[in-house]
Design goal:
Elements (H helix, E strand, L loop, with lengths): L15 E6 L3 H13 L4 E7 L3 H10 L7 E3 L2 H6 L5 E4 L6 H10 L3 E5 L6 H13 L5 E4 L6 H10 L7 E8 L2 H6 L13 H23 L5 H25 L4 E7 L7 E7 L4 E8 L5 E8 L3 E7 L10 E7 L5 E6 L6 H15 L7 H19 L1
Parallel strand pairs: 1-2, 1-4, 2-3, 4-5, 5-6, 7-10
Antiparallel strand pairs: 7-11, 8-9, 9-10, 11-12, 12-13, 13-14
Helix pairs in contact: 4-5, 5-11, 9-11
Protein name: Gfo/Idh/MocA-like oxidoreductase N-terminal domain-containing protein
Pfam families: GFO_IDH_MocA (PF01408)
Organism: Recurvomyces mirabilis
Amino acid sequence: MFGMRPTEATVSGRVINVGIVGCGLVTQVVHIPCLNSLSHQFQITYFSDVSEEAVKCSQLKVAGNLRPKTTRSVEELCNAPSVDLVLVASHHTFHAAHAELALRAKKHVFIEKPIALSLQDADRIIAADKAAGGGRAFIGFMRRYAAAFVDAVREVGTIESIHYVRVRDIIGPNSVFVGQSGTCPRTFNDYREEDSNALREKTSDDMKQALQHELGIAVTKETTMMWDVLSFLGAHDLSAMREIVGMPDGVVGFSPCATTGSPFGSAIFRYSNFAVAYESGVDQVARFDASIEVFGDSKTVKVCIDTPFIRGLPTTMVVKETLPDDSYKESVTRSTYEDPFMLEWKEVYRWIVEGKVPKTTPQDARCDLEILGMLMKSAFT
């Protein structure tokens, strides 16, 4: 079943050639080290970025004797015979355009989350995937491939009746975790003026499309900040929430703190027989406090998530339950020290080699934008 942890029996000996679009933080800190560790399954063969310095820096981080080719042209990378899989890790405003180029070239495409900022761009990716034959796009929700998360989904399935769910994601500055990760990422500013202008214009267009045209909400400093925070941080939580308990029926209330300039918010989602309390925020405290907790009648299941920017930090599952003899049992399961990104890349390999449709498809990711719309309408209309 797709989503289960791979076994050695799934290894085929085939090496997947990867072209990476976007050489920013997540590429340098996460993807290149993961692919280096999985060199028996993946080989980075191409880089593309608007920053020539970022490309050169990323080249030097690739293990082995093969020096990846580089280009400013995403189209060139997508059409290169030496590329089997295109990792779209560029700015999310360009995800749809870059994914379309890769899918048109009949490549497999791994798109970092969020899929896009608007339903319109998400639908562009869905249409391009269908035109390419379907099942060729994979959205990078690594939390859903964490071993403990997969275990928790199974454990929650044994709860006869869910009474309440709590989803929490309050984190400090990622720079603290990244700076102590030993990956030594670098940032550059050698951008051409036309590239910077294109980013500003596309971001502005996306906000108008998502807020004004799709939701009927005014584009303000507050609504723009809230949509930006929710699409980045919230996409992780809401995607995982959906897999565990499904799509909500609606939002009872959403209280964003955007009016005070604080990137915090809390909401209550309505389900047929229970409610989900959701809280999210970013501050300057150097800790990572993320979890999903499901309360049943005699069992509670909690997934505890650590920062993805330090490799080897495991996700854990905590189960608290009353047994048939009325005794109380509390257990903590850490089934592996492999972090979510490594497990996700192993699933990517299975997806390509075995031809299985991933659970994190573009159609699946579109649902998160729908939930973000529910939240924004609740607060700003």
